[in-house]
Amino acid sequence: MARQRRPDDIRQGALFTGSRPRRPVVRPGRRAGTRRTPTPIRTPGKKIWLSATGIETHRRCPRCFWLQYNLRIYQPEGIVSRLANRFDGVIKRYFDLYRGTNELPPLVAGQVVGRLESPFQELYFATLNQRYGFKGKLDECLVRPDGRYTPVDHKTASSDPNTREIIPAYQFQLDSYAWLLGQNEKPTSGLGHLIYFYPAESQHLHQGFPMEVTIKTLTTKPTSVRPILEQAISLLEGPLPAPADDCPFCLYVEQVKRF
């Protein structure tokens, strides 16, 4: 015969199990109902390298940025087409045909100033402090007659880029490339090029798939990069931040917790 509950078995927040009531488990140094900031994963002596892509995550959602660099938890990737990567490789090999000459590829000749850097350096690194650095990978770089460098970024698009505004992340990309060039003793021209490649309409596809090329020239602002990086580092060194109000990943997690 099951015993009956005694008055002292019925306590606020406790569950009667037939023997002893359960009590909420509270870890040391943590109050009930609060969240503890997880301990960042650090490898002694290994520098954390920020990038333009990572900074874009910081702009979109501080929490996702913190989790990416401190706990190596990345936002889930959707279905990614390999067509853009293949396209990028074809373009770079085409540009390489003119590297080491004074001739620019016909696709861009007369629209930009300079020659293709030869040999071309893709990767650049700059130390920020003992724990952090910044890195970038250029698609292309032009050297002007006065010896100054102009960073270039290739973009594959689905339509004419003139129908929409420049994405802020693209401006930061060119700004950061110009900053990295300067940090590596390569004076910059103060300009950067976005070269868009996108399909064109044609009634003669059987004669070859037509491609349009549009070049957007932006004024680079390398001095704006360091403050943005310092802000990102400050966030990484602090506690786990709140998510962005419109972050789809964080919203999904919060909604799932309700069930």
How would you describe the overall organization of this protein?
It is a single chain. With 259 residues, the protein is α/β, with parallel strands linked by helices. It has a domain at 83-124 and 137-223. It contains six helices and eight strands. The protein has helices at 52-60, 62-70, 83-96, 168-183, 225-237, 248-256, and strands spanning 48-50, 115-116, 123-127, 132-137, 140-143, 149-156, 191-199, 211-219. A five-stranded mixed β-sheet has the order 2-5-6-7-8. Helix 1 (52-60) packs across helix 2 (62-70). The longest helix is centred in the C-terminal third of the chain and has 16 residues, at 168-183. The two termini are 36 Å apart.
User: Which structural category fits the helices and strands?
Assistant: alpha/beta
Radius of gyration: 27 Å
Head-to-tail CA distance between termini: 36 Å
Please summarize the sheet with the most strands. Answer: 5 strands, mixed
- Spatial arrangement of strands, main beta sheet: 2-5-6-7-8
Q: What share of residues is helical?
A: 25-40%
The helix/strand series, from N terminus to C terminus, equals EHHHEEEEEHEEHH
Number of helices: 6
Could you tell me the mean pLDDT?
86
What's a quick, concise take on this entry?
With 259 residues, the protein is α/β, with parallel strands linked by helices.
Question: What labels would you give this structure?
Answer:
259 residues; disordered N terminus; alpha/beta; globular; three-stranded mixed β-sheet
Describe the protein's topology:
Elements: E1 48-50, H1 52-60, H2 62-70, H3 83-96, E2 115-116, E3 123-127, E4 132-137, E5 140-143, E6 149-156, H4 168-183, E7 191-199, E8 211-219, H5 225-237, H6 248-256
